[in-house]
Amino acid sequence: MTCSSSISTYVQLDDIVSKCDDSWVTKQVNSEPAPSEVLHYTKKSDGSKCYDDKSGLKVLKIPIGRTKGKERKNRKTKTNIIGADLSIGAGSFLKRENKDVFSLQDVFDAVEHLVETSANKEKEKLRLQRSIISTRRTLLKLMLLPVNTCKSFAFDIISYKGLIILNYDWDDVQDLTQSLQNFSLETQRLQQYSGFAFEDLVTESSAADQASEYYSLFRSEYSNFDLLFSAEIDAATDIKGGPSNYVELKTHSDGCARSPVSISRKFLHSWCQTKLVAGKHVVIGFRSKDYKITSVKAYSTSDLPNSISLSLLRPSPLDTLSCNKIKAKYHHLVSWIYQTALSLSRDGELRQFKLVCNADHNEDHSISLIASETDLFSTKHKPALTPNWLKDYLG
């Protein structure tokens, strides 16, 4: 990543969180901003969006509960699922391109709809002038920084009149290429496809367009700014419920390939992803080497941390991690990003930054916020990062 720039500010992740003992973490957890769902929509296969429409929300076939009736139904449903081949149909599967995976277009469309349908448009516009707009994919990468200390990350940031736009720099995909370098392209494709196949296997949908997807826009209220972000929702236990009924669906290898490190990483990834949207359920389908389901297990976000061996993910004597500490560091980092980008922006003019998180092995990342007067974003970023309607709203 090259650009004509100067380092505007530099800090260690732990410097952002100066006191990180148990009492500090408890205080942060008790005061952390809770995400609330402000709108939802179904995205059809042609890209069109139907707001306040839950037809794209898939319902989990496997009941999550302890009553005898549910347990009998659960056993019967799982019997039909165990042994299913997740590789069937993979031949026609095409991986999504990074420009689509990390696009901000959906969240911008949702924010525009939120403002346009607000009972008080002016108030909603003013809130935008003290907000961060992002996606759950990007926020998840920030949250997992404390355990990804061997990988470097970069994020694109635009600051304009109090609004901060934050997105993962998908051109700088060192973390993706490194994590996949030991796998063949076919294995990569099969692993990605198996996740979609498992989702279809354990859910049912009433949507006429079976390829439709369900999204939510969430807002977390910090002390002096809001965080608006979109998230694609895999499924729900009940279509009538809210975020507490949302379910994160995952697959993972079983048998010898199910190492303590890999399963702890999967559990942590799932826990963070679910906590970001105030969800309570994770369902994992374990698969054999030939991609057949061997077991299906449901986890609650309250119990999942007990199954995560964080010492295996970050074997450093300098810092004893916990799930709550990871979450507390994330909230402080988000606040630091907003305050720092805002302080480096002159008179509310459009400013562009790179947030660079350099790997420091078993220690926390060194974080640099790099500002430049030149355009840091290619044409593939720019249409999504600076929509005209947003400039009009902010004046």
From TrEMBL:
Reactions catalysed: a 5'-end NAD(+)-phospho-ribonucleoside in mRNA + H2O = a 5'-end phospho-ribonucleoside in mRNA + NAD(+) + H(+); a 5'-end triphospho-ribonucleoside in mRNA + H2O = a 5'-end phospho-ribonucleoside in mRNA + diphosphate + H(+); a 5'-end (N(7)-methyl 5'-triphosphoguanosine)-ribonucleoside-ribonucleotide in mRNA + H2O = a (N(7)-methyl 5'-triphosphoguanosine)-nucleoside + a 5'-end phospho-ribonucleoside in mRNA + H(+)
Keywords per UniProt: Hydrolase, Metal-binding, Nuclease, Nucleotide-binding, Nucleus, RNA-binding
CC per GO annotation: cytosol; nucleus
Family: Belongs to the DXO/Dom3Z family.
Enzyme superclass (EC): hydrolase
Cofactor(s) required for function per UniProt: a divalent metal cation
RAI1-like domain ranges (all copies): 35-388
InterPro entries membership: RAI1, RAI1-like_fam
GO MF term set: metal ion binding; mRNA 5'-diphosphatase activity; nuclease activity; nucleotide binding; RNA binding
Name of protein: Decapping nuclease
Record GO biological process: NAD-cap decapping; nuclear-transcribed mRNA catabolic process
The EC number(s) this enzyme carries: 3.6.1.-
Subcellular location: Nucleus
